[in-house]
Amino acid sequence: MRRSWILTKLFYCLFLILLCGYARSDATASQLPSSTPPREAVGSGSISGECPSIVAFGDSLTAGLGVRQDESYPARLQRTLDAAGYGYRVVNAGVSGETTAGGARRVSWVLKNKPAIVILELGGNDGLRGLSLQETKANLERIIQQLQQASVTVVLAGMKLPPNYGKDYTDGFESLYQVLAKQYRLTLIPFFLDGVAGSPSLNQADGIHPTGEGYRIIVERIFPKLEPLLERKR
Fold it and tell me: Which of 67, 74, 93, 148 has a CA between 20 and 30 Å from the CA of residue 113?
């Protein structure tokens, strides 16, 4: 029994060490110079620079950590838009390890792309690090307010946390996305990883980041939320 308890504790400590590694990458990534352009997602090549842009703004789940760029969700979303005949350019503005505080510092960088729509996927790293829910909510509000002031339509992607963080914290974390969506009249994706989280076949070895197939399912589920906001087809 004691051996099992020690192994469990060691595993938990290892997880925290790995998590801190992601946190350190955030400290560097969030300080990228504002002149650094976001990556354009891989599309059909038929979209011109005249088309409106959709910016996928988030952390490693948006960046596509661990998969080829053409397997990330922004690239897959681009292909879905192309196939449906929509003339939008999808930009991957994901930074691995990003927190909401780092995201708030990057809003001006995102706005340089003159997006029509921003899909905001941030907060997961805040929750995994146990940061204050009030701080996370305030940072997301700052991002949303700045985007809306620039006449950008915001789609908010909600996140959930493992139950080991305590019911009060996990419930509060999940509900803050619902509160913000209602307060700012945003289209809400209730859970960005819906249908993917917890599935070994749809996640990489770390159990956190989706595989290419996992991202395919993510796009399949978020597209119906996004499509009513699209204004024109080619």
Answer: 67
- Domain range for 45 is 2-229
Number of domains forming the structure of the chain? 1
Task: Give the domain CATH number at 57.
Answer: 3.40.50.1110
Q: Is residue 192 part of a domain?
A: yes
Whether 206 sits among the annotated catalytic residues: the reply is yes
pLDDT in tens, 23-61: 333 333 333 333 344 555 544 334 445 799 999 999 999
Identified catalytic residue from 60, 82, 96, 126: 60
CB 55 within 8 A of CB 119: yes
Q: Catalytic annotation on 194? A: no
Residue 199 bears catalytic tag: no
Return the H-helix or E-strand segment holding 55. strand 53-58
Question: Do the domain assignments include residue 234?
Answer: no
137-192: pLDDT as tens digits: 999 999 999 999 999 999 999 999 988 889 999 999 999 999 999 999 999 999 99
